[in-house]
Design brief:
There is one protein chain. By secondary structure, the chain is mainly α. Helices cover 66% and strands 2% of the residues. Helix 3 packs across helix 4. The radius of gyration is 28 Å and the shape is globular. The protein starts with a helix and ends with a helix.
Length: 721
Amino acid sequence: MRHVLAVAWIAFVFLMIGASPAHFWLDSGEIAAAGAELGVMHPTGVPGYIPLLHVATALPVGSLGFRMALCSSLCMAGAIALVLAIFERRGAHWGLVWALGLWMPLGLTLARNARVVEIYAFAALLLAAALWGFDPAVADARRDARRSVGVLAAVVATWGFGDLRLALVPAVVLAWILAWRRGEAWTRWAPLVVALASTVVLTLPFAAARGPAADWGHPVDAASVWAHVQATAIRDSFAVKLAGMGSRAWGLHARQSLLRLTEDLGPVGLLASVGALALGLTRPLSAHARERELAKAESRDARPLREFLDADHGLARWLGWLALVELVYAVAINPMGGRDRQTGLALAVVLTVALGLALHRWLEHGARGPRASEAPGPRKRRLFGLGVLALFLWLPPAYESASDLLVTRSWAPHAWTRAALADAPQDALLLSQSDDLSAGLAAARALEGARPDLVTAPAQHLYREPTPWQLAEPRRASVWMAAEQVESSRWQGQGERGRVLAAFDAWQGYVVLESPTTGALGGVALPALPGDAARLPLAVSLLPPPRDALPATARAPGEDPLAPLRATLARWSGRLDNPVDRQRLADALALAVHGRFARSPDSPVRWLEARDGYGLILDEVDPDHPRSLIGLAAAEDRFGETRRAIELTRRALELDPERSTAAANLALYLSRDEGGLEQARELAELAVELAADKRSNWSRLLQVCQAQGDGECEARAQAKL
């Protein structure tokens, strides 16, 4: 066990060195805010994790965000320790423990999620605990305690994670039924353990009852708590998108999942792991291996034969089921999470265990016959082979994840949020759109008490019923109540835009928008100030909004149209010095360019500005930014450079094959040539399958079908418009 603890400690230190100094990008700020004030994060809420984060804030080191990031590192180190304990239980050679233990934290998905304030390291810990508890190799004397730990971990995982719910519930229920029929004692305790573990869900209503600022959905009664842990709101919002997926989208998502796993495990690691899993499922231990296991076991504690017959094969069946569910989840249920490394971690853990079982079998039973397997020569050769294999396992993922240390240690997400807050005038309404800024604002408020004078809200969340905290202060209440009662106002029937305009009607004072005229703020433009150039793209338009048409102020004669972009680049030059940070800057700038262009889509001048703006982003920020490549291609096509547009869009699809806009635009360009209609149809169909909720994709499919003269396809596309 000392080798397991030593490796786990090294893994923790390795992960801790790269821990985020504050909140990270995406949802990290929201999770940190909920952890700091014992609030409720977005569905499923991950019951039990927020109190754990809150305990971590008591650590006397670093910022609050850093302390909660250390919680992720500790959870992942615990998961690694439990995985290695599975091999230690089998008497595995210490070299195997070190080889696999040092391999796991090198994976990009694992390292990223273990160094930031996120939920997925906790998921890995629960999965590893469930495998450790239900390992068939557990001795009789310890079975009841170990199974109880496995049940507890599985129940907590079920309440908090959709993929683990699908994977663990059937497996645990089946294991309980089989054990109950055999009369095993732990099955009598299992219902009580389930009931006790399920009390973790009470952390949600207890937290919501306090009225915290971080209160997603306000789950205070049985119905709202159930909807929250089932992620009903999120599943409903993606229902059309997921229902429209088909074989093309599934195949693409499968390839992308495979590529991400290759980055995490390395080519050799992935092939070896998949082969080991297949071997474990199809080839139980040989008779000779069973005899050796029995002899070893009886020399230690006289465990009966049935505890060792096919123990690895039994665990392999668990691993096979988990791998299947996780793969289906990543490909067909939550493929949107792959790009941001929010799926795939559990699959990497499962494949690591499978490889470890195969390597242990090889080390212990690699030679033929009992005497040969005990000979020092073959044993040394196998250990030497293990060392060589370890290098092939370590080096590829280490190469992929080495630069990620700079990504997770960056202060850029924190600085990005603070810059937006610094630019906002006193007592303003700030409507954000991106997860980065929305979650960052929540973290700034909860962790640092920043800018209590501002009223902040994600523009796309104004449809939600206001929480007690939002109604407690009159200014906040006016915004949320106006958005909730939009159908009784003059903005009824205008969807997200109507809710935003209704909120403007109720607000008295300055307004700051993130990426106006795009997304939830589509069609909402505010007057610009001459001095607001350096504020783009984080905060724009500091004038009180007009109450009617909200027209955009024309640009002054002689004004450089790219001045806001250049000012933003000058402001952030040198501060965003890693690929992820620069991609975030490129995203924001591209949205700003699109926002300016979208106000006058028929103006050649605006198209020229858009072309120059996208070109500036590609030249100065990120030459491989898909959104800017797609935008530049659209501008080039507008001026008759269709061949150039095709080249740029193909490049965008190579970089991000799951981006439906690129597929739809490329279908348009290719459809103009009769020889390209077939490929255009394939791309248009793919765009629809990737994002069936976007009307523009159906419009593109309709155009291609009309060009082909396919009436059935036209009718199908027309029905969706």
